[in-house]
Amino acid sequence: MYWTWAILLLVLGIGLALLEVFFPSAGILGFLAASSLIAAVVMGFMQGPLAGFLSLLGVVLALPTAIVLGFKYWPKTRMGKRVLLMAPSGNDVLPDDPEKERLKGLVGRTGRAKSKMLLSGVITIDGETVGAVSESMPIEIGQPILVVRVQGNRVVVRPVEAGPSNAPPVDPLLRTYDDPFDAPPD
Questions:
Q1: What is the dihedral angle through the alpha carbons of 50, 54, 57, 61, rounded to the nearest 10 degrees?
Q2: Measured between alpha carbons, how far is 159 from 108 in angstroms, rounded to an integer?
Q3: Residue 89 per-residue DSSP state
Q4: Out of 30, 40, 100, 134, which could bridge 20 as a Cys pair, Cβ 3.0 to 4.6 Å?
Q5: pLDDT of residue 20
């Protein structure tokens, strides 16, 4: 007799736990599920030790399995689709930025510094004024510059000798610097 009640309470407890997954009830269904499962184990032990351990084993194995399967199936339900946010597609995340594309078109072109550039300033390329950042050295007003690359929405430039240059942009990983500490020994 107790064995029958233990099985019924076990099924009821797992069913209530699944309902808590699909219909959040602020813990009411979870409390009822826990009470039912505890009563199932108690009824199992009232039948005998073997029935008690089997009902306890049923709770320990069936409850997590049912909850995991419920959470796996829930996003496919109507309510799950309404509640959960779907992952955005690439078009949603990466907007078309015509300004960035325009700036990328300036790479490799030459122009002149319109203002003194200690770190940043203004340059002109074919009559177009663009905000820029010096690669690592100060640039004087009117000094010729070469657009090396675009980082984010910033144009990175370096000074060049007078006259147009068709030098390719410098790869930042291949750039070399003079070591200020590499002085010839006395």
A1: 160
A2: 12
A3: P
A4: 30
A5: 87
